[in-house]
């Protein structure tokens, strides 16, 4: 096997080359005397004790941010410094905003009838304190970056006396949004403006004016988003600046419906105050601030920001007008701009796909690096090269996929070449297509003649390459055909052997009897699921009934049942303005659970384990989303004496077919080609969907294709080795069905010499089979309660007890933990606390625990985006107006990567998902804006605690390889298998679905 060509990944993250020059600012503290007076007002307004209230400072900070572009940083009033500015902002200008803020937050008559009004005299008393020049004074400060300290474990400390680092994202955001700075993205010219981050610390920028994509006479708008934040990495003595890139789509259809399910949509507002240069002496670009728009007995703003901004400079549109005509509110050629974010679920949908391809991420990152090159540099990681002994290690499940809807591996035929006439026809079609493309090229408003001519020449060069590649297809050679046929025979052999392995795994992990029930809506889905089981197990016939495997003493029974009313909405309000309370939700769930039990009890009883494949309607059927029955059905099947685990499938082809057939019938016609093609495309996805669903169900039943043994040549690892995933099932009061927070710690265990999967959770004392744990956690799982200190104590106590069970005590064990999931309660996993010297559960010194190893993983927003660089090949890329030659980048790569500066940190990158577009290396967002793009995310591995004789990289390799141990197609898991299975246990805890409609 040849070595990979992409042996370096470049992170979209920067490190300092050296200390930055000191910067001078003016700082303003929020006066202590005013804090006390404000709390008095809040206590009176809310009729609550003074020590139980906070100050509604958020709306003031947001108004300052939107109104005064010259402010670099706005903190919390409890921090040492509240405001930072490059110049002294006139206090009288600030006082005007304070006055509007007091009037908005503490009006004479509060619109919320549960709150009291505050008199003008009371507001004036506070205003006098705020206007007192002795209370508000700008003080000159000098910020430096050489003052940051290190924690005891060697990790950079950027919170203690390190305002220079806290301000960095905001300082750089101001630099990147300079009004004279324009970036290139492919051939588009974009400019960035600062905006409020959706969540967390850091700074955010959006491109404006927005980019556009037109489809079927409708134009859809979107912006590029840059998110800047300072991150620490365990044991790394310096911080890094992470630069994430994404797409934010704006509501663009005038016939947009109501916000889905009563959820709020964020509205970005850019206004311009005519208060003179004193507020913005350096001419910084205006700031987009965020105000949520929500439906609560009518459309209204969900905070006071919009009302406050309206006092300064009246907004031209009401909430109703924004929703009725969001494109008009964008006001593309002027200010103010009011931009409502599009959310998945809003009807009609947005036609621009999410995500940026690598070529665009690289172009932006390299341009930013060019601007910052005097002080900053992009961070590179190199491929960590290792080998796995594939003969001694567990063979990963590798079931060849059927092609299309045939459910077969097609027998290859020898390919014939083109006739001269066919070749000429194809050539002419290409020429016609290229002519059409050239005719559509128009000069953009942002381009001058030179830029347009350059872009036109690049398109001509690209078309010439296409013509050069357009060669007549000759007859396939015998040699090439024999190679293809040999590949087909290998796939056929692999298919046969994997079917046998899967049946043996079922027998070893489940026992002699397995029943698969298919609860269906559409007969086509039922038939496809039966075919999927037939395909995976090698059944003689694709039929229901009993299927025997006498050689391994296994019986598989397939039963089908029309799901009927169980798939309908829960008995809850369908009025989006009347969200049911927790008691109503729990009653509806319990009612559906009883209906599930009644339906199951009418069926013939079965012996052995039972898995259920359930077809449900698509998400458009659940409006609002609290009527979705999925959680209730799942919990209905795991009830005592029902004892079934379930997997849900939502095929889209039938709903689309019914929709198009109705439209065609109403119009008195047959389905047109486009409609039929869309239906056919969805039908072709059905075999893959149903096979994946069946394999997922087997995984939930505890089926593992082989013991997860991983052998590294010339490395002596413990054998047997136990892998344990620690997970905290965490349901907030909003996402729990009964309205109470639920915290249930769980562990999932696998052994390198044992095929079964076991689990344990708070509430039981013994390890039990994984599928049994899924069925019992809702009934027997004990949620941990108390204040934050009590929660920490109980959760850490659970971890200590489990590590001392006979199954783990004194056994070689690799404990895997997800940082974002549990570090709040087990604080030893936090960057500043994690230690190589031992485990800490309380205030004690680090403890050595024999034979235990701990690896912490994290991902999502806490790990940077990346692109891979080729060892030798080059490609041209446009940085600003210059065409330069850089290393060729990869659409995706996989592997383990590290850096010489930190032997305990590794980056695990999985395979490109099968759902990702198959595009060329130079594929840009603007080539096909409608495509969704998601690169494999980095999983950061921190080899935290190991034994003295261990080498850190061994445990990083094991953790990386455990992402490939799932019973599924080759797609790599987001987390190692034991953590993946632990996270899935949360699906079986009584809850309502979390809001999936997050702002982009």
From TrEMBL:
Q: Give the keywords, sorted.
A: Coiled coil, Plasmid
Domain of life here? Bacteria
Q: Which residues form a coiled coil?
A: 665-692
Residue ranges of every copy of the pPIWI-RE module N-terminal domain listed in the record: 13-394
Task: Establish whether keyword Coiled coil is in the entry.
Answer: yes
Tell me which InterPro entries the record gives: MID_pPIWI_RE (IPR040496), pPIWI_RE_X (IPR025085), RNaseH_pPIWI_RE (IPR024996)
Q: Write down what this protein is called.
A: DUF3962 domain-containing protein
